[in-house]
Amino acid sequence: MVERVVYCVCVCGALLVYASFSGQSGCTIQDCTSAAGLISGAVRNYLGSAGQEGGSTSYASPVQSVYSPAPASTYSPGQTRHAQAGKIQASHSMSNLQIGTRSEALVGLAAVSVSTPNLSAQAKPRTEEEEAKRKRMRANVIKELTETEVTYYTHLKTLLFSFVEPLKTKKFSISDPLIVTLFSFLPPIANLTKEIVHGLQTKTREAAGGEKPVDIGDIFLHLAPVLKMYENYLNNYDSAIQKFKEIQGESSQLDNFVKKFCEETGQQDVTFYFIMPIQRLPRYEMLLREILKYTDEAHPDHSNLQVALEKIKLINDFLNDQKREDDNRRKINELQNNLITGAGTPMALFQQGRYYLREGLLEFRDKKRKKKEFHYFFLLSDILLRTKPGRNSLYHWKQTILLKEVVLTDLPPNDKEGTLSFELTEKTEQKYALVFLFRLESEKQQWLSAIQKAIGSLGQVQTNTRIRDMNTRSIALRNHKQDPALQTIDELMASFNQM
Question: Which pLDDT tens digit goes with each residue over 461-470?
Answer without folding.
Answer: 343 444 444 4
